UniProtKB/TrEMBL annotation:
The chain crosses the membrane at residues 27-47, 68-88. InterPro entries: FxsA. GO terms for cellular component: membrane. Keywords: Membrane, Transmembrane, Transmembrane helix. It comes from Salipaludibacillus neizhouensis. Pfam families: FxsA (PF04186). This is Membrane protein FxsA.
Amino acid sequence: MGKIFLLLLIVVPALEIFVLILSGNVIGIPMTIILIILTGILGATLAKKEGLNAIRTAQMQASQGQMPSGVLLDGICILVGGVVLLTPGFITDAIGFFLLIPQTRAVFKGFLLKFIQRAMKSGNVVFVSNNPWNRKR
């Protein structure tokens, strides 16, 4: 997992620079800068809206005694999407919007859920319940 993360830290910025240079040559530097700023503003607005919706849904589910597990995965996706949108570049913006839009976020949530389940089965992640009714007396 660490090797993949390291590879992404090297490859993604290089691809971003390539796309930004290409964009500057095709549509011009001022238009490229404007697009980067607009996607940042739009992304921040969308992240705030989706984040507040996730918090409201989690609070509603918790008040009804339900475990807000799906909403927690939404929150993780929204957080990552918002952070990725803060980085300048069109590739990371596309990934960020993918994670912020509810219909496309569902695809990533499926992958994230499978990843968490595999990590729990392998023992890399341990789930601990703080529920007082599950404690041994």
